[in-house]
Each structure stands twice: as C-alpha cells, then as structure tokens.
Amino acid sequence: xxxxxxxxxxxxxxxxxxxxxxxxxxxxxxxxxxxxxxxxxxxxxxxxxxxxxxxxxxxxxxxxxxxxxxxxxxxxxxxxxxxxxxxxxxxxxxxxxxxxxxxxxxxxxxxxxxxxxxxxxxxxxxxxxxxxxxxxxxxxxxxxxxxxxxxxxxxxxxxxxxxxxxxxxxxxxxxxxxxxxxxxxxxxxxxxxxxxxxxxxxxxxxxxxxxx
Amino acid sequence: xxxxxxxxxxxxxxxxxxxxxxxxxxxxxxxxxxxxxxxxxxxxxxxxxxxxxxxxxxxxxxxxxxxxxxxxxxxxxxxxxxxxxxxxxxxxxxxxxxxxxxxxxxxxxxxxxxxxxxxxxxxxxxxxxxxxxxxxxxxxxxxxxxxxxxxxxxxxxxxxxxxxxxxxxxxxxxxxxxxxxxxxxxxxxxxxxxxxxxxxxxxxxxxxxxxxxxxxxxxxxxxxxxxxxxxxxxxxxxxxxxxxxxxxxxxxxxxxxxxxxxxxxxxxxxxxxxxxxxxxxxxxxxxxxxxxxxxxxxxxxxxxxxxxxxxxxxxxxxxxxxxxxxxxxxxxxxxxxxxxxxxxxxxxxxxxxxxxxxxxxxxxxxxxxxxxxxxxxxxxxxxxxxxxxxxxxxxxxxx
Lengths: 212, 399
Known about the structure:
heterodimer; A: alpha+beta; 4 helices; 8 strands; 17% strand; disordered N terminus; B: mainly beta; Neuraminidase; 2 domains; five-stranded mixed sheet; four-stranded antiparallel sheet; 29 strands
C-alpha cells in the first residue's frame, strides 16, 4: 500500500478522533441538543430528522431479497400534520450514504465461527501483521469494527460483535499495541459484507475489520 | 496512487447506481387475514367525500380477524351505513350508524372535521364499532414505527397500523436501530450510528427535535421506555461488557442494574418497574428478570437454546421473544403467571416482536418484511411491502 493511502487513512483517523473528542467521548453522557435538521443541514451531515408529516421525500426501499432499490415517494401530506403547514424545502445536501458492504482489504479482516468470538488459528497472521504495523506507528489509531451474520437478535448481535472486536483487541494488546491506539465499535448485523442468505455469506459477515 | 483512484471510481460507481435505481416503486402495503369472523354489512358512504370511508372501515374490521365485511343488504349480524358530505364548521360532516340484525341502532355518531381528517376518522369509526361489538379496544387508529432501508440509507418511519401513510421522521447514512415509544406516543428513543459510533437519541415525533441521551464509550443500545415515561433502560458497555442501565430522564443520571461478566442487553420494563432482559450468563442467550432496583436475576426461559429480544405485554402478563429451535427463529410467547410457553409463528427468521397497545397482537419482522400475529396465535396479518422493514415498534394509545 502506498504512503499516500497511509497518510489519507491517518488523516481520517485523526479526524475521527477529533470528532469524537468534540462530541464528548470519555466524558459522562451529558445530554446534548442536536442541531435540528430540516433546511439547516451541513454538507456531509449524516442524519436528518423531520417533524411528523413534514419530510420532503419518502424513503428508498432496499430489498436484499431481490437486490433492488426503489423508493416510496410519500412525504408532505399528512393526515395528522398541522393543517396549512408549508412543505419544508429539500435539504441542501442529501444524507451521506454509508457503504453497505466492506471497503476494507482482505489483510485487515478477521473472520469468526458461528456464535463464537474465539480467534481462529488462521487469523493470527493477519492480526500479527497489523499489530506490528501499529506498534511501529504509535500515532496511528485503529478502529476495530465488530460484525455478525444476520441471524439472531439485532441488539444481542451488537454485543456479540463487540465481543469479537474485543478479542482482536486483546490479541493486539498482548502483541504490544498501546491501548490508546485501539478503539472498538460494533455494528452487529447492520453492515453485512455479503447480502446472501447462505452459509457462505454468513461466514463473510462474521468478522472484525481493522480500520486505520 | 492507482489504488486511490480505483477506490474513488468504485465510490462513484456505487453512488451512480444508487441514484439510477431510485425508481418510482410505490410502497404497497396490504394485509391478508384468515377467513372467518362475524358477518357485518358495510354500505358505501354517501355524500361524495374524497376518501372511501366504508372501504377503510371494512379493511380495518377484516384485519382484526373477528369480522367478515359483507356488501350492503347481505345476510349479516350487523350493518353499517353512513355519509360524509361537505359542511359543518371545518369542512366535512361524517355520520355513521351501526345497527344489529333487527335494525336496532347500537351506535349513531357524527364528526365535524377538516378534509385531512377523513382517513383518521374512518379508523376511529372502525375502532368504535370494534369496541362496541367485542368489548376490546381497537387498533385501527394506532401507528407502527419501523426501520426501513439498509445498505447505505436508513430511515425511521411511522406508518398507520394498516401500513398506509408511512412518514419518514429520520433518515441517516448510518444504521438506525431499536425504536421505542414513550408511553404517551409523543417521542421515540432509538439507536443511531451517525458519526460511526452508537448513541441513544430521543426524538419528538411531532416537532422532529432530538436530543442525545447517551453517548458513552462502547455500546449504547436497546433503549426501552419505562411505563411511567420518566426513565429509559438501555445497554452500555463502558465498564467493559454490556450491562443494563436505567436513566432518569429528569436528572440524567444513569444507574447500573446488572453486574455480570456475560452479555446483558435488551432490557424491557414490567408494569411493576421490574425489568426483563437477555443474558448469556448461562452459556446461551436466555431471558432473565430483575426487580425495580436490580438485584439477583431470575431466569425465565428454559425452552430451546436461544431466547432473546423480549417484549412485555401492556398488562405485564406475557413476554414475547425471539426463540430459536432447530436453527430457526420464531416468535414465542410466555405467560408469566402460568409459565406456559408457546411458539406463535411458522416462518424461519422471525425477529423483533412488539405488542400492540391492547395486548392482542404482536408485530414482528422476518428480517425483510413486517408481519403481525395475535397473542393467542389464531390471527395472522402480512404487510406486503417492497423494501426492507425491520425493528417494528407498535405505538401506544395516547396522543
């Protein structure tokens, strides 16, 4: 991988870190008022909320069974909305679409067995090479993103994905990577790498992505 | 350098494809119900209103599984007639009459409403008829929240209980999970991953205003509103592994209720302030119960090797859950008084049950679609809906 990408990734990690710091991570969960969305959205903003009946558009339908997208046009005309309320203008920027599948290269993905957070022997080399790199680059922060297959409870899978990411973290720590370089987040089954409903897809989805 | 270019062209390709396929496919939600039920003749409403009120009432009553709507003048135990005409102080006068087979009037009511209330009034009429004839509160006027989309765009949607009138109240480029209604139906708590980290957000459904109530390091998950509306239970892993917390919304101080090295998550409240939750402290996920102040956990489920995602009926008598047997997931329900355990669904990937506010129906997802089944397992409803709908939460009565 070229230095250019490394610099890019490092910059992204720093930006991530900065954004976390500014939103209060590592402090008590003090309530914060979020900017209301509507027409005041910032470019790159990821989420927009709407008063009931006031959303300017409908929603995209994403059908994993047929692999197709569509959209529900909807919007604006509510049986419950305050009568006479003007329709809100379209936000200046669409919400940033997140990537559904994996954008991480294969040498940064650790796979797991069904219902297990045990590190398989065939994963040791991948963890070790990434740990070596992080140890030699102590300013780089990695985010370990835990994932599960789509079977089972969504929230329980969030916990299972975290358990997997923590298992990778422990191995990296044992290899000498500083705890300050490792962040853990679990997406559970929400961001599958493969959309199929077979064991092959499930096996690709039970993973930890080492992102930096 | 080349790889960077490749990365960007992949991104451009993905974005381009996504915009191409925003075809105008309408969300077509219908439900089918097993035949049977009490015959009730419903005549088209006269007066020329722009909504087919009789059609909405017939569909609502059919969906309950307890009535079989018939054309006017058919042999039936009951009959409904009415009219909806321009007039009154607000735009329309809607009047209807429910009669028994002998022609005796059981209900005779009229409404003075604006045009945009014709559909809600039709649901109100359905519920009045249902309550009069069954003694139970109806569901036609209620709503269901669910998470739509996935794979790049997520939406929190609130639709009428018949699946019509879906309204987006949040859209995000990151996952949205686990909506939970405040008991008065005015707010939703949910998990949002915006910023690539989970946080628990409370959003006012009517204004769209929202507030982050938890953004601790690690998991912020599975919010559940207490029946008194003053507390939220949820899962945090900031102390090393997932534990159950209760947050007093007035003082904003979270109190930890569990202490166990295993996964504890998915808290839901009992009417007495106790909490049912999922834990794998016994080796596999099972449901446990703790009292209002925490303390020792009592295991509730012993059937099968996986019971999770509990939902408590409004009267506190039943717990619905995801239940795995033979590698497949079903919705099961347990009677907390008799400990009778019953599998309700026959599909293979049922998840995320949520009770209707009258306790008679349970809405759930099969990972792709919403469906509903009666708590006694006798009535099924399917929401035939294009696109993915998950994590349904049936709204309480209330506003």
